[in-house]
């Protein structure tokens, strides 16, 4: 009888994704029996924290397994930890936010765990098919999460739009993979990297790369593939929006950076021009449209588009400096954005989203903690030193200037200046606009406030002492 | 005196943290703690003044530790003759301003915490010797100022605060780009200002001039030089008294300080190339323009604000002379303007607290009811006019003497503008303090002890420096001589001056 | 009959384009979804043709992945469409205009 030959598998490499998947299954099952939302939240928190610790313990390991399609390296670990920490913060936010929404906790947390598992697969994937699988595991979970608040029309609508556009993007991703396969005969990034130099079918290859840019462009919300973003971010439950704006985007970039700087590194001259234009458009359109928003959640959606543009600048610059800057920026961006959406969640309540600038009037005095932390997040997003956002932009623009992309750097810096106008408007609303005097009883939000304070502290710490975090990003990138 | 500059800079921040921890229902305690937090910095400043080595051109009390090693960014502070005068001015004005703010009754905790953060930012700008650190402090300062104007300001505070924020932020964005280009131009890459000295020469003259102009715009917004000045009257009119004092006394100096430290030090050739139009001519224009605008004002505070624009013009003119007198006079004028304008704004604050308006036409004959107040006011107005025996006289004469050797035509215009200055100041003095007393103000109380405590130290300095300007000139002489040589030598090595 | 690989690729490209156009111009959510399925299957055709031309199986294996994922997507997608339909009884994309800015 013929024997099956399984490739040697390094099970340590799949530890993070394995643990999160098991967590997801456990939560789905527990959701049937456990009614207490808080208990389920704690189980998720503990599960994610254990996974994060286990993942951190893998530091220093380097291996490629599953026949060269799944990597355990510092790059993957950097992103795994980013997803897990973002997941923990989102769970903390959700433990307060879910109260009274009627969203079933077991399903919600289970899907959250699966989404993170998908992201981890994306960060580790060294094969286009595995990238596709990870992307789908993540996306399908998030489609459902976006529509988790079933009784809310806008949540339905967000899920629907996200699903349709996401599936549309999947089509492009697959077509891109097919064309690249046609030109190089490979799915594995290392084989693609060696084959791109001497492919007889260059047109097909370039078309495939362009398709992949479109697909990733959808996932990271780059202009002109961003039109779904504001609607989906505004309509989804705020905690899910935070997850989408931070972790989903980071996962998109994790795969984007690995595929393009590793697999298609040899084609930099070809794709960098296209990305140059996309980066410039993304920053400018994101910021300019954000100027017109009165709804803070929607404004943050446009701001997240703009920030994708800054990360694309780093990607265009490429090289060690650009890659490191992209990773560092994602880290920085994650905390400030999580915090900002946390504040949005904290100010809303079931039936009263309180998301417009008018609702923010006088918040700085009525809810001082939220006022101060939101100030930190807005200023950090603007890029004011010594907050983390400044350090991130500094590294990105430095990388661009180092590689000679002066014009792109200037466009980015000008965009920073434009963005100050709408971020500052939130501060104006919070502190300078007289708000309603009535002091409604503010619900206790211990978990949510914890998540906000954690994000604020990280935003300040990373900003004042960026060297250590930069070093982590550098390790991560150099392990590619 | 280990790490004295670091202590001076960050003690107020520590004070801010303490203030934030105090209960907000005890405003009196908060005010006292805030005052107490500014005093150690002032005391250290006095020690620094006494111990400062006046003979050397090197940076003193240097503190340097790596901060972000991968970009060669250091925490690098130190003072030379130029910065120490500004540090002293800041350390002196801050306690006075805290004292002058004791009347604040809304959001006391936030106000004083922000004020102390502002002090840290300002001192940081003056002591930073790493361009990156300089930029960080420059931005740090922006926010407390924004909130102090925006929350505690007058009726149009929101507009004024946003205008201030956007102007300054736009300027600093330009500075950021120029900073990065300079960083990559230097080999090895560095942000350290002493090591960048003269390094602008690696670029071709055209790039140097572009860099210079980018930096110039960033600083000119702060000075503020025409046409970047329009935020200033708004900000001044809306800001609470103490904040106006800080704005005029310290923040405006950052513009000219930045020019001396960055533009002169790093891009000497471009400095010589561009100084005539962007500093000398524009400065002279500012002198005349500020004075004419001041003549037209009906609001006392706005008048003082425009007089600031006019007086800062002398600083620009003096700087552009590249003669020892001119440049020494310019820095002395920076210090003197800091004290005199602070005094003027405090005086305006005193009358505003009593009458609740600032319309010049609404007053008259105050000399009769407020003799002490009138005495200090007369001193301040005469000092602003440049009367001999008072501090500004020396600095303005030095500026004009220095400028005469290089730009005689402009000097004549600038000197003639003194007539305008005397005109608006004397006219105001006459309308507010002399003449018929309005019945409404017959019972106004004279300055109280707290107000006097804010006014007298400044008045004393104005008198003292009028008699003995060497107290400041000795501090700055060596460093400025060195800087002047650097510009001339750098220009000789780089591009030939016009 | 021998079909050149190029023909298969051409057909796949045409189908894909029809799918894209369908997504962009049709307003019925169900039809949009069908157009997306058309795109995926066009890609499958490409995979099979390219793998065949190379004489390799890996490209053909991918088709199974795509089909599985498409099935999962269809399940979730239809569930979302039904949830939305229950709340507002329409499947016209133009009427999903609550979120607009």
Write the layout of secondary structure elements.
The complex is a heterotrimer of chains A (480), B (498) and C (101).
Chain A: H1 15-33, H2 37-57, E1 63-65, E2 70-72, H3 74-97, H4 105-124, H5 128-146, H6 153-184, H7 189-195, H8 202-220, H9 228-235, H10 238-263, H11 268-291, H12 296-317, H13 319-347, H14 363-366, H15 368-382, H16 388-402, H17 406-432, H18 446-464, H19 466-478
Chain B: H1 4-21, H2 27-51, E1 60-68, E2 73-79, H3 81-100, H4 108-127, H5 131-152, H6 157-185, H7 193-196, H8 205-222, H9 231-238, H10 241-266, H11 268-296, H12 300-319, H13 324-355, H14 366-369, H15 371-385, H16 391-404, H17 408-433, H18 449-467, H19 470-493
Antiparallel strand pairs in B: 1-2
Chain C: H1 5-25, H2 29-54, H3 58-88
Helix pairs in contact in C: 1-2, 2-3
Summary keywords:
heterotrimer, B: 498 residues, mainly alpha, 2 domains, two-stranded antiparallel sheet, 2 strands, 75% helix, disordered C terminus, C: 101 residues, Helix Hairpins, 3 helices, 0% strand
Model description:
- The complex is a heterotrimer of chains A (480), B (498) and C (101).
- With 480 residues, chain A is mainly α.
- In chain A, helix 4 (105-124) runs antiparallel to helix 5.
- The two termini of chain A are 41 Å apart.
- A two-stranded antiparallel ribbon of chain A has the order 1-2.
- Chain A has one domain.
- Chain A has 19 helices and two strands.
- Chain B folds into two domains: 1-266, no CATH class; 274-498, no CATH class.
- By secondary structure, chain B is mainly α.
- Chain B contains 19 helices and two strands.
- The radius of gyration of chain B is 22 Å and the shape is globular.
- Chain C has a single domain, classed as Helix Hairpins (Orthogonal Bundle).
- The model of chain C has no long low-confidence stretch (mean pLDDT 87).
- Chain C has helices at 5-25, 29-54, 58-88.
- Chain C has 101 residues and is mainly α.
- The chains are: A mainly alpha (480), B mainly alpha (498), C mainly alpha (101).
- Chain A binds chain C through residues 129, 132-133, 136, 140, 143-144, 147, 150-151, 153-154, 156-161, 163-164, 167-168, 170-171, 174-175, 177-179, 181-182, 185, 187, 230-232, 234-235, 292-293, 295, 298, and chain C through 9, 16, 19-20, 23, 29, 32-33, 36, 39-40, 42-43, 46-47, 50-51, 53-54, 56, 58-59, 62, 65-66, 69, 72-73, 76-77, 79-81, 83-84, 87-88, 93, 96, 98-101.
């Amino acid at each position: 009888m013929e024997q099956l030959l399984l490739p040697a598998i390094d099970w340590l490499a799949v530890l993070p994704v394995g643990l999160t998947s098991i967590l997801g299954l456990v939560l789905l099952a527990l959701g049937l029996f456990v009614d207490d939302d808080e208990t389920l939240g704690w189980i998720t928190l503990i599960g994610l924290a254990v996974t994060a610790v286990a993942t951190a313990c893998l530091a220093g390991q380097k291996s490629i397994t599953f026949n060269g399609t799944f990597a355990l390296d510092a790059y993957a670990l950097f992103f795994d930890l980013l997803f897990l920490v973002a997941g923990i913060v989102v769970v903390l936010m959700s433990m307060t936010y879910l109260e009274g929404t009627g969203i079933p906790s077991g399903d919600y947390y289970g899907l959250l765990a699966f989404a993170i598992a998908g992201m981890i697969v994306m960060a580790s994937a060294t094969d286009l098919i595995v990238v596709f699988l990870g992307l789908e595991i993540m996306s399908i979970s998030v489609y459902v999460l976006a529509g988790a608040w079933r009784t809310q029309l806008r949540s339905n609508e967000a899920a629907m739009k996200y699903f349709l556009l996401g599936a549309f993007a999947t089509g492009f991703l697959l077509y891109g993979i097919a064309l690249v396969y046609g030109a190089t005969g490979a799915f594995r990034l290392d084989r693609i990297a060696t084959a791109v130099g001497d492919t007889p079918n260059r047109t097909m290859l370039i078309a495939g790369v362009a398709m992949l840019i479109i697909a990733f462009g959808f996932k990271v919300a780059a202009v002109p593939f961003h039109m779904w973003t504001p609607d989906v971010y505004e309509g989804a439950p705020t905690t899910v929006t935070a997850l989408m704006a931070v972790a989903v985007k980071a996962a998109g970039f994790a795969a984007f950076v690995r595929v393009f700087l590793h697999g298609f590194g040899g084609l930099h001259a070809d794709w960098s021009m296209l990305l140059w234009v996309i980066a410039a458009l993304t920053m400018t359109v994101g910021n300019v449209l954000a100027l017109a928003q009165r709804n803070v959640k929607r404004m943050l959606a446009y701001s997240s588009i703009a920030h994708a543009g800054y990360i694309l600048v780093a990607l265009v610059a490429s090289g060690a400096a650009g890659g490191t800057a992209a990773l560092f920026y994602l880290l920085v961006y994650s905390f400030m954005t999580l915090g900002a959406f946390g504040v949005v969640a904290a100010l809303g309540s079931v039936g009263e989203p309180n998301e417009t600038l008018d609702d923010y009037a006088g918040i700085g005095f009525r809810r001082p903690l939220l006022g101060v932390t939101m100030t930190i997040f807005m200023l950090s997003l603007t890029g004011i030193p010594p907050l983390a956002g400044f350090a991130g932009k500094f590294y990105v623009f430095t990388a661009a200037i180092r590689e000679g992309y002066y014009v792109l750097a200037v466009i980015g810096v000008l965009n920073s200046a434009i963005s100050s106008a709408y971020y500052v408007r939130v501060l104006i609303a919070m502190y300078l606009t007289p708000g309603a005097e009535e002091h409604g009883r503010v619900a206790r939000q211990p978990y949510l406030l914890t998540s906000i304070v954690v994000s604020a502290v990280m935003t300040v710490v990373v900003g004042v002492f960026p060297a250590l975090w930069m070093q982590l990003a550098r390790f991560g990138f150099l392990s590619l | 005196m280990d790490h004295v500059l670091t202590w001076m800079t960050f003690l107020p921040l520590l004070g801010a943290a303490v203030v934030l921890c105090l209960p907000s229902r005890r405003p009196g305690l908060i005010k006292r703690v805030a005052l107490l937090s500014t005093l150690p910095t002032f005391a250290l400043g006095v020690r620094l003044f006494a111990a400062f080595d006046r003979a050397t051109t090197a940076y003193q009390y240097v503190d340097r530790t790596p901060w972000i090693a991968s970009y060669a960014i250091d925490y690098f502070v130190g003072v030379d003759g130029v910065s120490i005068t500004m540090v002293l001015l800041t350390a002196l004005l801050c306690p006075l301003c805290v004292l002058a703010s004791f009347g604040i009754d809304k959001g006391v905790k936030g106000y004083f915490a922000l004020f102390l953060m502002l002090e840290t930012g300002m001192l940081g700008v003056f002591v930073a010797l790493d361009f990156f650190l300089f930029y960080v402090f420059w931005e740090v300062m922006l926010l407390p100022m924004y909130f102090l104007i925006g929350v505690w300001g007058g009726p149009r505070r929101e507009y004024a605060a946003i205008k201030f924020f956007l102007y300054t932020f736009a300027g600093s964005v330009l500075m950021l780009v120029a900073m990065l280009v300079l960083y990559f131009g230097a080999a090895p890459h560095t942000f350290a200002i002493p090591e960048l000295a003269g390094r602008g020469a690696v670029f071709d003259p055209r790039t140097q001039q572009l860099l210079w102009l980018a930096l110039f715009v960033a600083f000119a917004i702060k000075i503020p030089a025409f046409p970047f000045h329009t935020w200033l009257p708004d900000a001044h009119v809306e800001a609470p008294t103490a904040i106006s004092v800080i704005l005029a006394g310290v923040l405006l100096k950052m513009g000219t300080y930045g020019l001396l430290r960055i533009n002169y030090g790093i891009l000497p050739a471009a400095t010589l190339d561009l100084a005539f139009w962007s500093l000398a001519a524009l400065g002279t224009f500012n002198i005349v323009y500020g004075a004419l605008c001041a003549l037209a004002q009906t609001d006392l505070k706005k008048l003082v604000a425009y007089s600031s624009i006019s007086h800062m013009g002398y600083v620009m003119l003096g700087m552009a002379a590249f003669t020892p007198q001119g440049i020494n006079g310019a820095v002395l004028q920076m210090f003197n303007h800091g004290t005199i304008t602070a005094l003027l704004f405090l005086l305006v604050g005193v009358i505003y607290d009593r009458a609740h308006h600032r319309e010049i036409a609404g007053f008259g004959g105050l000399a009769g009811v407020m003799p002490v107040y009138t005495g200090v006011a007369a001193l301040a107005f005469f000092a602003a006019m440049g009367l001999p025996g008072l501090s500004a006289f020396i600095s303005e004469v030095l500026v004009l003497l220095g400028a005469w050797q290089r730009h005689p035509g402009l000097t004549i215009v600038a000197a003639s503008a003194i007539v305008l200055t005397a005109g608006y100041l004397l006219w105001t003095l006459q309308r507010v303090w002399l003449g018929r007393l309005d019945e409404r103000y017959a019972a106004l109380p004279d300055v109280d002890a707290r107000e006097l405590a804010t006014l007298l130290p400044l008045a004393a300095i104005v008198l003292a420096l009028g008699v003995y300007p060497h107290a400041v000139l000795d501090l700055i002489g060596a460093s400025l001589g060195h800087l002047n040589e650097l510009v001339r030598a750098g220009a000789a090595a780089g591009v030939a001056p016009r | 009959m021998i079909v050149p690989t190029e023909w298969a690729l051409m057909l796949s490209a045409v189908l894909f384009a029809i799918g894209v156009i369908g997504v962009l111009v049709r307003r019925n959510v169900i039809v949009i979804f069908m157009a997306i399925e058309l795109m995926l299957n066009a890609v499958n055709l490409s995979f099979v043709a390219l793998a065949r031309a190379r004489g390799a199986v890996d490209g053909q294996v991918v088709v199974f992945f795509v089909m599985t994922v498409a099935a999962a997507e269809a399940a979730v997608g239809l569930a979302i469409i039904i949830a939305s339909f229950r709340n507002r009884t329409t499947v016209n994309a133009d009427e999903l205009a609550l979120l607009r800015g």
